[in-house]
From TrEMBL:
It holds the Pfam family Helicase_C_3. InterPro entries: XPB/Ssl2_N. This is Helicase conserved C-terminal domain-containing protein. It comes from Amycolatopsis arida. Keywords: ATP-binding, Helicase, Hydrolase, Nucleotide-binding. Residues 518-636 form the Helicase XPB/Ssl2 N-terminal domain. GO terms for molecular function: helicase activity.
Amino acid sequence: MWLLDEPEFDPTLLDWLAGLNPERLERILTARPDVLEPSPPRRLDELAERLSSAESVRAARLLVGTPGVQLLRALQLGYALGHEQGVPPATLAGWLAGDADPRAVLDFLAGLALAWPDPSGAIHLPEPLRGDEYRTYGLGASLAELLPQATIAELKRLRATLGLSGGVRKPQLVDVILGVLRDPGHVRELLAGAPEGTVELLNDTARHGPTVPVERRSGEPAEWALRHALLWTLPTGEVVLPLEVAVTLRGPELRLPLDPAPPELSMNPADPADVAVRTSAAALRLVDRVHSVLDAAATEPLPTLRYRADIGPRVVKRLARDIGATPAEVRLVLDLATATSLLTVRELEPEPPTRARPIPPPPDLGVVPAERAARLRSAGSAALFRTLLGAWWTLDASPLADEHAVRGLGAAAVRHLRQLTLRLLCHLEPGSGLADEKALLELARWAVPAVPASAADALVRGSLAEAELLGVVADGAPGELAYAMVAAGPRLDPAAPELTGIVDRLLTGAGKTALFGADLTAVVAGAPDVQLAALLDSVADRESQGAATTWRFSRASVRRAFDRGTTAPMLLDELAAVARDELPQPLVYLINDVARRHGEVAVIGVAGVVVGEDEAVVTEIAGHKAAGALGLRRVAPTVLVATVDPDTVLRRLRRAGFAPVRRDVDGALVIAEPALARVAEPEPEPAVSVPSPRAHAERLLTEWHDRPGR
């Protein structure tokens, strides 16, 4: 079969799609990439069905700005007035106010497949868009919606009142009455015989309605209008003016707005060289923050909230204080590191059972570096930054937006507002920056009227703050990176050559040397290079950051470096390699002195202890060949210590023929519970290759026109 058995779309959509050239169809597929997922449509009729689905239409509706929404409302009005086979262009033009030409707006909607013409020129809408947003203009429900609410007896009485005939069943009665009341001439004839005050009542309601004020719902004018269906009583008791009557009464005065001109942004001059310096410093600082967060999580897992795997504000503030960052920087880094699988959530070691608590509580969750973190860090700062940038561009949430304002907003809206914010900024003239944030908020509301104003404002502010921290924007002025990201479109390729070159330039300004002082400090001008920052963090403590970063050496910080396996000669050589001048003597003395005392006392780890009552049995165990594998050493006549965990000691000794038991630190017998079966994680499904929109557009059109039996 070359056509879906029961197509759930307007047939004119398929005819229109089939008549497009590959460039026009490519434009639709690019603007609505969701119709290519999870696997591309195989035929053009399947594409038409996907384009008409409520979910896809809802996502595309987010992309429509104020002029498009205004035109959609006018088209919805046409459908409500009976133009179910498409709204004639002349009818549409007659409703629009001013001299605005709707053709450019219609072309935009056609590029989203949200409106299209049939061969006669009538404009069609997909089923999910045939709503009643026109009520925004003070218009009420149509009689096509109201009449079916009446009983058959009521409809027959209305038919008689209007002097009509025909119709037995309810749908037939509705059609007969609708045919008359949708005719402006017949409505005017009815009003010519109406009681005094009726026309005035209906005209007032048409201009200020659609609801009749309570004080005017009684009396002969209202009662006569109700008997003739020129007014209608809703189940709530409200009396309203039907849409068809309002349109007839307002006549040429009915004008729907169409405002294609966007609000203007006010600009401030911005020195491109200064923007380049500031965006570079911000990008370098963010990369440094990523390394600091990963190191902190590796040292100690970051605790999550108990009932959801998310890091709470207290941990964010503490981490910011520990690494010398702001909470906003930490929040952004955490979200990006999670989105790029640099951080992952794991169960922490559970508390051991005790006599007082034989059943331990469920283990807490902690955030730790994932395996990918080491690989991506070793790939270099540029690769790491590009990965973070790509994740931010398509992130489902806004880390720095007001949570309460954006609650309940879908991921598609969040992504669209983020990318829209940059696009709007990049419309500024080169060498200029944003002068007034309020103007940007107003423009964003105009561009995305489907999003509540408070949520749109919060997302724009959050996106601006995030872009500043990423080095994409500097004080409202878009940097080189912003223009490249906007040019790349909704699907950013972090490995694209043009993006790679810009990122490389951004990260070349990192400080690679430090000035070491006799006061045991090290100062790096600007943002430090990642390797330099890692070296200094390993042996000193950060004190301040800004135009320069300062570290201070102490006995504790130097000892920390030795604890990680370095030696005094190695450390002195590494520091000398990044020093602008010779290392000061106080620092050399401190390092050598700490090295001299490091390791005076050794602490040996003991994983398990074997305690016996019979010295002979303990002696036999100590001499057994299993003792070497367990690392057993005798520390008392009846005590052996092992270098492996107690479970391994138990298993090996039992295998050797002994009969040990497990006891807790307080001597209580530990009863082993049967291990729970673990369910293997399902293997990920192979990724489906999504073709380019252009290639798929050409294939769909070619196969449709070459189908058998055409």
